């Protein structure tokens, strides 16, 4: 009996494996049908995605690249008088960290760069330490919507915290004030923005587009 070797042996084994797989596949025609149709389904999906992408890119205002998008809204620090419950005289915000030139510069820029309304100095109250500010908040409820705690631990390391003055709470009918959106978020965004500017001041910023 002669044994095949080389390329004829490879062809014989290939034909045998193909025949074996075909027989096993035909025993479950549902799986065979799925295996045949899935590639065509994905090809159709890719074709549809490409056509929709081409269609959207041709629409005016949708497909054009926007390199300098316009600002939709400004999360400005609102006047303290806009708060639902407030006592006069009131402050737009208070802050701790007085005596640190860098922190004082950041707070000054927060006041000057407040979108749509620069904050006057008499509407901001400063404290030297966090403890002094917290004590004042407890003794003077409903006097300011919120406060910023600044702390510089290293030359380029500056941390901050946002605290809202919720020492007192009164319920008036069904009126609900979104405190986080109206008061806490504007303070957080303003502090983050000006801290980032202070870190980038005097340094070159390289953008990879």
TrEMBL record:
A single MF term (Gene Ontology): ATP binding
Transmembrane segments: 31-49
Keywords on record: ATP-binding, Membrane, Nucleotide-binding, Transmembrane, Transmembrane helix
Protein name listed in UniProt: ATP-binding cassette
Organism, as annotated: Lithospermum erythrorhizon (Purple gromwell)
Lineage: Eukaryota, Viridiplantae, Streptophyta, Embryophyta, Tracheophyta
């Amino acid at each position: 009996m002669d044994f095949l070797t080389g390329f004829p042996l490879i062809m014989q084994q290939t034909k045998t494996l193909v025949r074996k797989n075909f027989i096993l596949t035909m025993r479950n025609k549902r799986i065979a049908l799925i295996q045949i149709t899935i590639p065509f389904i994905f090809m159709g999906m890719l074709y549809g995605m490409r056509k929709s992408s081409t269609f959207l890119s041709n629409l005016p205002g949708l497909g054009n690249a926007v390199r300098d998008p316009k600002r939709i809204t400004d999360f400005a620090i609102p006047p303290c008088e806009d708060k639902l419950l407030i006592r006069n005289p009131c402050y737009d915000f208070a802050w701790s960290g007085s005596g640190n030139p860098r922190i004082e510069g950041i707070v000054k820029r927060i006041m000057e760069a407040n979108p749509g309304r620069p904050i006057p100095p008499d509407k901001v109250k400063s404290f030297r330490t966090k403890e002094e500010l917290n004590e004042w908040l407890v003794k003077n409820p409903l006097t300011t919507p919120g406060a910023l705690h600044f702390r510089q631990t290293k030359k380029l390391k500056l941390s901050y915290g946002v605290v809202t003055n919720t020492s007192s709470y009164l319920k008036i009918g069904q009126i609900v004030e979104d405190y986080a959106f109206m008061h806490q978020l504007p303070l957080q965004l303003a502090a983050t923005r000006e801290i980032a500017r202070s870190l980038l001041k005097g340094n070159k910023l390289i953008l990879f587009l």
